[in-house]
Amino acid sequence: MAAEMSRGKLAVTARLRSPVMRQAASTCEIHAWYHLWGAGFNGSALPALQMELTHANETVTLWQSPESSVYAWRELVAYPGRVPGKFQITFSSTQSFLQLRGLAIDDIEFRNCGLPQLMSQVCGPEEQKCERGSCVGKDRFCDGSDDCGDGSDESELECKSFRVCSFEADLCGWKTVPGLLTWNRNTSLDLVTLYGQPTRDHSSNSKAGYFLHVSYNQTDLMKNLARLTSPVFQATGNSSCSLVFYSYLYGSATNSINIYYVANATQTLVRGRTGDLGDYWFREKVDFNVNKDFEIVIEGVIGTGKKGHIALDDLILSPDCKQAAGKRAVVVPEINSSCSPEKFVCEDGECISQESACDFAVACKNSADEKFCGDTDFEAGSGGWRDVSVGQLQWVTMRASEALSPGTDHTTNTSAGSYLAMQRAPGQMVTAAKARTPPLGPSGLACSLEMFYWLQSDPQGFIAVSTVDHALRMHQLVWYIQGNGSMEWKKVTVPLGERPRPFQVELIGLVSPQGLAVPSVASVAVDDVKFVNCDPRVVPQEATELSCNFEKGLCGWYQDENDDFEWVRGTGQGLGSDHTTGNGFFMAMDPSAQEARGLRARLLTYLLDPAAEIQCFLFWYRMDGPQIGTLNFKIKHGGEAETVLWTRTGAQGSAWHLGSVTLHHQPQQKYQLIFEALRDGYLGHMALDDLSVKSGTCRAQEHCSFEASACGFNANGKHSWARQSNATGTAVTGPSTDHTTGTARGYYMIINTSKSSLPRAATLASELYVPLTHTQCLTFWYHLSTNSGSLNIYMEEQGARRQLFSVSSMQGDAWHYGSVAVQADGEWKVIFEAVGAGREQSYIALDDIHLKDGSCPEPGSCDFELDTCGWRSSSDPHLHGFAWGWKSGASPSKYPGPQEDHTLGTKEGHYTYFDASVLGHGGSRALLVSEHLPATMGACLQFWYHMDFLEHFYSGELRVKLYTPAGELMVWSTGGHQGQGWKNRMIPLHSPEEFQIVFEVTNGAWPIGGTIALDDVKYRDGQGCDLDQMLPVEDKTPTKSFLAAVAVGSILALIVLIALAASLRYWLKKSGSVSRTENSITSPGFDNITFSDDSIIISQRPKEGEEMND
């Protein structure tokens, strides 16, 4: 779903509304992914996106996007709570015409929203039957939530002996402690609208319902906590006094709610919750077993950093909490330090900045600032890990002797040792257990987390590690493993990388809560957690190793853990062989991987000291696939911005290519190197191997696109060549797009050939090339304006020049391809010379200069053995960036192709190809376009093609078209199954204007599968086609038997589809699943509903005053 800006109005609202639904359970969760883009998100007083619940003639906000939610797909989780009767969910976004921004929503899912299943058999020993026939846990009766779905578990008769305080009328005998912050009784209507505050109470799920909220006093920074005390209760004896309450901890990583009991003026901590639990009321249960009269104290503590919100609702005391006649003991916490709450207190009383705590570097004399930061063996407690679970599972520190499994810890390998274990919890939600560290950082590039884990579970269970960034409201999964039944301690090292402060590490685990009661079914634990190389001020010894073949690791290269997906070290993986040995390791980036959600993957070095003023950095790269994107090599000096030194865009074929960059260092200035992959879709891969560094400059670059630099080309004179793009150019108004990227942002070299700017010739000279033992081909693309003058190309060897090429006019506003043969016994350079013609506003532009092996092919011809010659994939943005590939039959690739080429007839021979299966359905196309060819009264195009599709059900089509300034003309086509092997074709051509030949692959209205390949394309001008020499080939007109087979097959397929659709509709009606109309909803609830329409654009806002519950 996408919403876009509608111009012309001061403010407009787009709304996406669900069907009318019924009966959401108290465990209901709504998950969705959203993406925001454009300017103005952070400057708006209103949230860019919010989700609302409409129920019982009231609309309440369930979730709203944080201020920083921009430029990435992010997951949201909202909790509607128990909703009886009809309701609707609405996404809305309000924007003004000054804020050009858009948003998208995908994968909306309702989890655990159905009411408990009706049971015909007897309930379990720990369950109790509801009036409607379902079974729920006995501890869910009289807990303030309608778990049965009919209210029978919360009926007045059932719960008459419980003491319930919903704060609707008063504090019910609970009292606040004076001299501290205050628990204030409020409704959401009373509070000033702030991000992260409660938008409803828990009791009634309404904006008008009351709850307690901690008010923060900004004028007295020494006060950071509020306390609420109960009446005095009798000693529990053999019974247990239980308190159920609903807490709201949201918007802060350091806020806390603590539960104490006070007996004989001594307070004892029973339970504490710290951190951001989520935007909802979560169930807590505390049992008190005290042999003296006691009071209960509920403490809310405002932490450091962002304040967030703390609130309470629905305090429920069990019948065994019997009030005593004693007086209350006023418990006021002592202030043991002169440090403000914003400071960290060392054990010797020294006050240090909170930024110095848990920053991986010792600041206190006794290391107190790093003791409780997550680096622990759990022998002395949790080591700083805090459980933030909200469901029926939790993380608990315990001795092995107290647990059913594992029977020993990892540290001591005895039952006396301790670890962090997953246990059952009193929470309400059906979700994973989570524990977090305190806020950490900053961390260095080599930072990693080491730990030992025990995972005895079926494949539904898992352990995962993620990082939490509260500033961006983002969770990033960094490691994950599924249950496999193993009963042993295993070690894992999880890269965390360079991260700014503050971030938290989150441990996530999930198994069946019932399975934890049986050790052979499920047991989960973690031990010996250690942070390694995380201090950013300490550089590891291996960090200086820039040369790397990746056979034993990444050397001095590290993943940027703040990017969107990762480079992966591997062998093959369907991405071809390595460059070093052919069967070794390399680094690969595959944007089709399931976890690759974002736009870039980066490899980084540490900030390093330069070894010499000038170095040459060499590397081998591969870029293959129909939507591969861009590979950049960057440098960053000190605190300066990153600079692109080298770049490639688009498919470069399934082969390794050498890249080289000269590094110019400044003395005493550190530098960092960066490889950055920017994807342009999900189809293709990039790879890196054999990185090396040597002293001195690199030799002249054989390939220059001018995207990153001028590649050592030297322009002479005051009025000379300049590197620019159309988007940023100032030298002269030139081509609207470059040739490399086909966009206004792409760079080229240009010179103003107007008489006032260029009174004489100006040259652009390359660096020196090495001698050539055999003929090579220098190719380039040029663009001339009207009456631009002349472009001349010279080869200079030992001071002597030889002219290779000259052009003074061209037809049309397009880039033209040129090539010249070069051979030299000594060092040489190429010189591009521009000679002005005297016309104003004229120019000559150059792009994509490439020196390659072999002689230059004839215009329009190519055998594809060395590259694709003058043939290029179209850069038309409307074609989704689909690019033809280039490979040999022997090249391992995830995209299939013929096993042998046509030229050589071997696996080593090369051809160009396109995997038509990536086009999907709906008329997508992929174009392979020739260089511009001069007008002809008669020419012949000959080529070999390979279309080994499956028969009948695949309708891929190969077309040949001519593009001219007057339009396009299709001259030949063939489709469907073409038999085995290479087929030959000759096509007579004529055109009164300059033209290009285009091979087009299209799929029509049906999806197709298979590869179309081309080889040995020959264009001969001035010659007709001798069709008698063309080998027999199937006619493009399908035979009658083929048509009959297609017709019969299509009819059978249609019958099957209709039968499946009817069966699915019948099943849906029987099961009462997803429905779009109110009248068809017969089920009392729903579960795991996913809206899966691919794309719907919301182009108009609803009418003013339109109701939500129609």
Polypeptide structure, described:
- With 1110 residues, this protein is an all-beta fold.
- The chain folds into seven domains: 127 residues, Jelly Rolls (Sandwich), CATH 2.60.120; 171 residues, Jelly Rolls (Sandwich); 28 residues, no CATH class; 161 residues, Jelly Rolls (Sandwich), CATH 2.60.120.200; 158 residues, Jelly Rolls; 140 residues, Sandwich (Jelly Rolls), CATH 2.60.120.200; 166 residues, Jelly Rolls (Sandwich), CATH 2.60.120.
- 3% of the residues lie in helices and 39% in strands.
- It has one helix and 67 strands.
- The strands form 14 sheets. Strands 1, 4, 7, 9, 66 and 67 form a six-stranded mixed beta sheet that branches. Strands 12, 14, 15, 17, 20 and 22 form a six-stranded antiparallel beta sheet that branches.
- Strand 61 and strand 62 form a beta hairpin.
- The longest helix is centred in the C-terminal third of the chain and has 32 residues.
- It is elongated and about 110 Å long.
- It starts with a strand and ends in a 12-residue tail after the last strand.
- 41% of the residues are buried.
Which helices and strands occur, and which strands form pairs?
Elements: E1 2-3, E2 11-17, E3 21-24, E4 29-38, E5 50-55, E6 58-64, E7 74-78, E8 83-96, E9 101-111, E10 127-129, E11 135-137, E12 163-165, E13 175-176, E14 182-187, E15 210-215, E16 225-229, E17 241-250, E18 256-263, E19 266-274, E20 282-288, E21 295-301, E22 309-317, E23 343-345, E24 351-353, E25 386-387, E26 393-399, E27 418-424, E28 433-436, E29 448-456, E30 462-469, E31 474-482, E32 490-495, E33 504-510, E34 523-532, E35 558-559, E36 568-570, E37 586-589, E38 600-604, E39 614-624, E40 630-637, E41 643-649, E42 653-664, E43 671-678, E44 685-695, E45 703-704, E46 714-715, E47 722-725, E48 747-752, E49 762-765, E50 776-784, E51 790-797, E52 800-807, E53 816-822, E54 828-835, E55 843-853, E56 872-873, E57 885-888, E58 910-915, E59 925-929, E60 936-947, E61 957-964, E62 967-975, E63 983-991, E64 996-1002, E65 1011-1021, H1 1040-1071, E66 1089-1091, E67 1097-1098
Parallel strand pairs: 1-67
Antiparallel strand pairs: 1-9, 2-8, 3-8, 4-7, 4-9, 5-6, 5-8, 9-66, 10-11, 12-22, 13-16, 14-15, 15-22, 16-21, 17-20, 17-22, 18-19, 18-21, 23-24, 25-28, 26-27, 27-34, 28-33, 29-32, 29-34, 30-31, 30-33, 35-38, 36-37, 37-44, 38-43, 39-42, 39-44, 40-41, 40-43, 45-55, 46-49, 47-48, 48-55, 49-54, ...
Protein name: MAM domain containing 4
Organism: Crocodylus porosus (Saltwater crocodile)
Keywords: Disulfide bond, Membrane, Transmembrane, Transmembrane helix
